[in-house]
């Protein structure tokens, strides 16, 4: 049984902070397929398209028939833990600090042997299931878990290194004015976050959910306007050293394409909030988070941007807004690379049309705040880089994998 | 499969081992040069007399054996590079022997060695193989220690071996090392010391692991006539085998390629395990020595713990094993670890082993094992050699 993680003690400012270290990050091109699947928490292995042989470690040609047509496919993760060891010393600094570290050999039912991280609740010789997750280097790694759930399972120290679980962590949610703010804050607190700082722009201007937010235990409302650099810098000065998870839900959206608008007024505002706002937040909070990647139980672990799935294929009815979403997505890719040395994960929560005043004439299915909050927490617990919330987002994801050009045409013709 | 031809007319001579050092500021070139010079001096040969060169080394980068010919001033008409780690000795031998037999070379100098600068082991690990990079290092980065820990764990579970069983191998080798002037480990080791040692990767503890160090090993392969003409003590090659990536479908490595080829080995040698006066196994981690005793026919699969419990593995015992202390006690000089058993066996069967000499040693089995590419060693080899009657 896993011991529950205790809340972290108050930080002693006189003690040197643990510097972030990474497990080995080098991978062959083939092995990056595992990381790509881990970005969505999928357990996938290469399968030979000609003879069906399952491959591991990742290869460039089939060990069974020499075909070079190998494809990553979701694979049965069931197997048996046939050997184990506890590594007590390592020339690698990350594992040296993290030791003792349990690893083992899992014989999968599909007939390959896998060296994997091993959850403390797995029994040698027992049945296990493998998961594929991103590690602190941002690369896909496999870990053996017990077949079923066990008490405090997520608190296993090796597993926690692979996730961004909100438990005992402090979250900054950037925009209290979004209708989704109370649902997101509640879900994070329910998941064990110790505090949720909620940024509030134009504090003098009333908004409907303020009372609800202010009444939630664990929520702190703080002034933050992502379009105002000095406001962002000021807040970072105040709480930058204790933001472990940053959820950027700031959003400015108006319907309209390019020609229908006639000027770039709304577009500038969309860019300012949605893309430049992200950059301002990154410049103010990013360096501190990157430095705090190994800061104990409540280390900095994740940065989540909530973006429209139409960042990937623009719906012309919201063409101006979607351009800002695409800009934010691109900026987030850079941020992902820049935060990686600290082990801080940058995730995108892709969302379909939301149930709000600015999407009145969009047909359902639409995403409710509760569903968004559920996806957010699940994504953090899985440590994924890409989270797809709602039927529209998931459908678009699947179709984009088949043919992005076809999707562009379909979406531009009003096909969602 | 056809039966291999004999190695009639070819012999091995001039075994030479440099002293090892734990760390060295020198390069692989330095150590290989010392190994070659030692073998040539032992044979009374000049560099120019050598027309074949076989090199095994991990730390020559950015050079290869090609660059080494110019660096060291050799002009060979036959050149070989053996990237097989612990199997490099047996493989270098069998290739060189065929070259000499066929007339492609008259005298082949075989050398293996590496330097060990402060950070070389870490560097070697980080670029050892693609599968290791993709599928081993990210999981605790225990290097070979962790992979052998898994194999040892599996072997213990499957066959009921105990840490004492492994410990006895290590303790006997330390006994042997105390006689061997070049051994790095010079402190006596008891079974209690072994059992109480610092854990490295369970069930592997400190004395299950070899110590990486710097050094080189070398020998010469030539015709029987050439050796006789020069009055060199020489050993004949009775039989050799080599195999790579054996039993790829085994879930874990509980047997090596020897099992596929041992019938060939013994039938060509015209003798059996019981005829061996000494055995040199590849011993990075004692569990691998057990696999070799089993797979080479000394006992049944899984019976090595019991078999070895009743044997005395020291120089004066009834089954002298790794008589110079092996890598566990003499040290592992990189690819030199693939040569150490063979070079010592040549000394033994030519009665030139000095303080480690096994009385009346005539026939020796030398076994090699190399290259943990991912979860198992891929190369295996073995040779039976024999001194003049």
Automatic annotation (TrEMBL), chain A:
Gene3D superfamilies: 6.10.30.10, NAD(P)-binding Rossmann-like Domain (3.40.50.720). Residues 72-130 form the ChsH2 C-terminal OB-fold domain. Residues 36-70 form the ChsH2 rubredoxin-like zinc ribbon domain. Residues 14-25 have a biased composition (Low complexity). Pfam families: adh_short_C2, OB_ChsH2_C, zf-ChsH2. Residues 1-11 have a biased composition (Pro residues). Residues 1-25 are annotated as: Disordered. InterPro entries: ChsH2_C, ChsH2_Znr, NA-bd_OB-fold, NAD(P)-bd_dom_sf, SDR_fam, Thioester_dehydratase-like. This is Short-chain dehydrogenase. It comes from Roseivivax sediminis.
UniProtKB/TrEMBL annotation, chain B:
The keyword Transferase applies. Keywords: Transferase. GO terms for molecular function: acetyl-CoA C-acyltransferase activity. It comes from the Bacteria. SUPFAM superfamilies: Thiolase-like (SSF53901). Residues 268-372 form the Thiolase C-terminal domain. InterPro entries: Thiolase, Thiolase-like, Thiolase_C_2. PANTHER family: ACETYL-COA C-ACETYLTRANSFERASE, NON-SPECIFIC LIPID-TRANSFER PROTEIN-LIKE 2. This is Acetyl-CoA acetyltransferase. It comes from Roseivivax sediminis.
């Amino acid at each position: 049984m896993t011991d529950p993680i205790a809340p972290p003690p108050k930080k002693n400012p006189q003690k040197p902070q643990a510097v972030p270290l990474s497990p080995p990050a080098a991978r062959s091109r083939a092995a990056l397929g595992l990381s790509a699947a881990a970005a969505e928490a999928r357990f996938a292995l290469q399968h030979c398209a000609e003879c069906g042989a399952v491959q591991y470690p990742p290869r460039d040609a089939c060990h069974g028939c020499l075909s070079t047509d190998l494809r990553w496919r979701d694979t049965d993760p069931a197997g048996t833990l046939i050997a184990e060891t506890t590594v007590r010393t390592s020339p690698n600094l990350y594992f040296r600090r993290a030791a003792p570290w349990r690893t083992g050999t899992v014989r999968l039912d599909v007939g390959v042997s896998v060296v994997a991280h091993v959850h403390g609740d797995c029994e040698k010789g027992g049945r296990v299931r493998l998961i594929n997750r991103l590690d602190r280097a941002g690369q896909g790694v496999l870990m053996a878990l017990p077949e079923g759930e066990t008490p405090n399972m997520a608190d296993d120290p090796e597993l926690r290194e692979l996730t961004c679980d909100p438990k005992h962590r402090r979250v900054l949610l950037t925009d209290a004015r979004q209708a989704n703010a109370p649902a997101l804050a509640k879900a994070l607190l329910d998941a064990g976050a110790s505090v949720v700082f909620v940024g509030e722009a134009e504090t003098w201007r009333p908004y409907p959910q303020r009372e609800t937010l202010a009444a939630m235990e664990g929520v702190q409302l703080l002034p933050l306007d992502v379009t105002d650099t000095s406001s962002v810098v000021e807040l970072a000065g105040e709480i930058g050293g204790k933001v472990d998870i940053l959820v950027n839900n700031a959003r400015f959206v108006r319907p309209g394409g390019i020609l229908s608008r006639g000027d770039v007024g709304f577009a500038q505002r969309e860019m300012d909030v949605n893309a430049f706002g992200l950059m301002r937040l990154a410049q103010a909070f990013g360096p501190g988070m990157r430095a705090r990647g190994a800061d104990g139980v409540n280390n900095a672990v994740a940065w989540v941007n909530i973006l429209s799935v139409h960042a990937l294929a623009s719906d012309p009815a919201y063409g101006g807004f979607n351009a800002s979403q695409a800009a934010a997505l691109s900026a987030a890719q850079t941020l992902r690379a820049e935060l990686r040395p600290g082990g801080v994960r940058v995730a995108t929560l892709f969302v379909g049309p939301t149930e709000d005043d600015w999407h009145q004439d969009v047909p359902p299915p639409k995403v409710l705040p509760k569903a968004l909050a559920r996806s957010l927490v699940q994504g953090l617990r899985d440590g994924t880089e890409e989270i797809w919330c709602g039927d529209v987002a998931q459908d678009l994801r699947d179709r984009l994998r088949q043919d992005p050009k076809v999707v562009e045409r379909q979406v531009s013709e009003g096909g969602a | 499969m056809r039966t291999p031809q004999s190695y009639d007319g070819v012999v091995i001579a001039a075994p030479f081992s440099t002293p090892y050092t734990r760390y060295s500021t020198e390069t692989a070139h330095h150590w290989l040069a010392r190994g070659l010079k030692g073998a040539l001096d032992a044979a009374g040969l000049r560099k120019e007399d050598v027309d074949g060169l076989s090199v095994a080394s991990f730390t020559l980068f950015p050079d290869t054996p090609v660059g080494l010919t110019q660096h060291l001033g050799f002009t060979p008409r036959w050149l070989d590079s053996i990237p097989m780690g612990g199997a490099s000795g047996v493989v270098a031998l069998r290739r060189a022997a065929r070259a000499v037999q066929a007339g492609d070379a008259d005298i082949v100098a075989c050398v293996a060695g590496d330097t060990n600068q402060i950070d070389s082991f870490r560097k070697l690990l980080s670029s050892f193989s693609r599968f290791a990079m993709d599928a081993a290092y990210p999981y605790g980065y225990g290097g070979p220690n962790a992979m052998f820990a898994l194999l040892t764990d599996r072997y213990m579970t499957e066959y009921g071996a105990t840490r004492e069983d492994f410990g006895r191998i290590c303790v006997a080798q330390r006994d042997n090392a105390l006689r061997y002037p070049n051994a790095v480990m010079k402190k006596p080791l008891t079974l209690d010391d072994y059992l109480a040692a610092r854990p490295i990767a369970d069930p592997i503890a400190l004395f299950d692991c070899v110590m990486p160090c710097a050094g080189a090993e070398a020998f010469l392969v030539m015709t029987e006539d050439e050796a006789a003409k020069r009055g060199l003590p020489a050993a004949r090659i009775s039989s050799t085998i080599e195999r790579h990536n054996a039993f790829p479908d085994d879930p874990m490595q509980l047997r090596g390629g020897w099992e596929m080829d041992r019938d060939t080995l013994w039938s060509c040698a015209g003798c059996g395990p019981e005829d061996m006066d000494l055995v040199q196994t590849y011993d990075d981690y004692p569990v691998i020595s057990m696999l070799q005793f089993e797979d080479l026919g000394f006992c049944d699969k899984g019976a090595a713990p019991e078999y070895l419990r009743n044997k005395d593995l020291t120089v004066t015992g009834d089954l002298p094993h790794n008589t110079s202390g092996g890598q566990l006690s003499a040290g592992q000089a990189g690819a030199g670890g693939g040569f150490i058993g063979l070079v010592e066996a040549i000394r033994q069967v030519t009665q030139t082993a000095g303080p480690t000499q096994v009385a009346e040693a005539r026939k020796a089995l030398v076994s090699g094992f190399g290259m943990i590419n991912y979860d198992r060693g891929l190369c295996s080899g073995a040779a039976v050699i024999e001194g003049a009657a």
